[in-house]
Design brief:
alpha/beta; six-stranded mixed β-sheet; about 30% helix
């Protein structure tokens, strides 16, 4: 019973953190572009629950598909300018964790059915945030729950994105 509560609470937290009601300060078009990643994150994180912790530690890059940054490669090669997710700083063990950068991609009002693409806009062309993901393991040694919280962006990624995108704290995407 408590496992279901923890897992359910974590899923609600990710949903609220990445999709809930848009902050008045975040452009609705960019908000929805960021919210798109919520579905990807939710599916991905739910798919690894109950995987043995030791298996997750050795296969995390295959189990959490996406771009993993090792801290040495040039951040410009990650392709974040077009939007998406990049994971970094994996720590294994019974409570594996890692960081992630979430980028909206360029603002695309023409693809957004909820706005008039001809309406003047003077905000940022893109937004991004950073977060941490931490898993818990059950007494059986399987991943049993996860949580998402604010985490600083790596300086190298932030330097690359600043100017082209505006940083927003994770809390700005809570509803």
């Amino acid at each position: 019973m408590s496992r279901r509560i923890v897992v359910g609470g974590a899923l609600v937290a990710v949903t609220l953190a990445l999709t809930g009601c848009a902050s008045a300060e975040v452009d609705p078009v960019l908000w929805r572009q960021m919210a798109h990643h919520r579905d990807l994150l939710g599916e991905t994180f739910r798919s690894v629950l109950f995987v043995p912790s030791d298996e997750f530690e050795t296969q995390y890059a295959e189990l959490i598909p996406g771009r993993w940054w090792d801290g040495r490669a040039d951040p410009a090669d990650l392709g974040l300018e077009s939007g998406g997710l990049v994971y970094f700083d994996f720590v294994g063990g019974d409570a594996p964790s890692f960081g992630m950068v979430i980028h909206s991609g360029p603002r695309d009002a023409e693809a957004d059915p909820f706005v008039d693409a001809d309406t003047p806009y003077s905000g940022p062309d893109a937004v991004y945030t950073c977060a941490g993901v931490a898993f818990e393991s059950s007494t059986e040694g399987r991943l049993s729950a996860y949580g998402v919280d604010e985490r600083p962006c790596p300086d190298e990624i932030r330097t690359m994105l600043d100017g082209a995108a505006e940083y927003r704290p994770l809390a700005d995407f809570a509803g």
